[in-house]
Amino acid sequence: MSIKSIAAKIFARKIYNQTISWANKPAETQLEVFKNLIDNARQTEFGKDHHFDSIKTIKDFQKNVPIRDYEDLKDYIEKVKMGEENILWKGKPLYFAKTSGTTSGAKYIPLTKESMPTHVNAARNAILHYINETGNANFVDGKMIFLQGSPILTEKHGIKFGRLSGIVAHFVPKYLQKNRMPSWETNCIDDWETKVNAIVDETIKENMSVISGIPSWVQMYFERLQEKSGGKKISEIFKNFNLFIYGGVNYEPYRAKFEQMIGRKVDSIELFPASEGFFAYQDSQKEKGMLLLLNSGIFYEFIKADEFFTENPKRYTIGEVELGVNYALIVSTNAGLWGYNIGDTIQFTSLAPYRLIVSGRIKHYISAFGEHVIANEVENAMKEATAGTNIVINEFTVAPQITPANGLPYHEWLIEFEKEPENMETFAAAIDDSMRKQNIYYDDLITGNVLRKVVVSKVSKNGFQEYMKSQGKLGGQNKIPRLSNDRKIADNLK
Q1: Given Cys at both, which of 80, 227, 341, 372 links 367, Cβ 3.0 to 4.6 Å?
Q2: What is the pLDDT of residue 471?
Q3: Could you give the CA distance from residue 99 to residue 430 in angstroms, rounded to a whole number?
């Protein structure tokens, strides 16, 4: 065992003990974060506009600060972008993370000297929790790859602009620099396909032990590795590859495909990062869900997803949430976001400590007939339909077909298969059965002959990649919505 791996184990135990300390007092931890946020922003323009001086309790805050999305906060953000100080948070942010908005075009999310360390520490701590629980630290001596956006930044009015993953690349600890791949030059390549090919060339002969990225783009990297190596399994190319770190989308729909490509099972760690904050990470290989980070400068509120679009929905705090309920996640942060709807929905899997899964997007659902199907349901249905079979899925999305040429409307599942079902009708029926068990509204519509059962449509090889390329969203942090309430994606794929 190397000195580095021994040191990693000692550090992992320290971080674990620190985590236990705040996780065991969730309400107190969140109240402390809340008070700190209000105190630091009292003299900002936003704080004055929303009477932060009069805020003494969380109820006061909820009365003074409405729920906002990016468009509602944009006037403040524009002032910050122009170099004005003390607008949303004291001083000026260090960075703006540029991210793609689904309705508002590009979004610019501030990152401050207070918020930036939480992004870096959370990713580090996720790995340390894994080391502490499993005792496996040998991978720290191997090479590690992080598939991410370009670290090239621009600067305006004393603030640097770039993609979140590219910004974070500037904060890789010195003790990991020698292990980190790809090279800085390769990481700076903007075109995704060119970049992946360069990464393959750089890494194919290296001792890769950790690979990290959004599953769909890591899959593309693996496919190029196999092409380059003459069809070898990833475990033959990287004999010491034992840890996959991912975020952004659910890994389960990709798991069978990954295990086929790798040639064996590898441990995985799920992360829940976003430009707005690093919210959670998987702290245990034995428990379901990710640990919600209650002490990282973020105050959380939760709104039941089925009440979100009603007038004045109730805003719950950490001590009021329940297991299994679908909540919209609302955050106030030390980067200057206040009552901010990040767009994701979550469900708690544990309340001691608070662990969660990402169940979907508040605007990504199918409810053409009142069924309100969410991403978690379609992903579970795909998992159940493929369990115990040889079916391998590359990618899929779901959309309603409201005006079919013949017969009743239906939900269309557009699927790119690596290995198709022997019987497509049986496979579609398995998906439909799972959906009916999970969603009583969908079941009622099938029973009442308002909808017909699921229809599966095959997408050609690399069809999803070609679609993303056509939209200018190939690679990086971009991902296909698992489902949508219209047919924009579906019709493009077909």
Answers
A1: 372
A2: 83
A3: 37
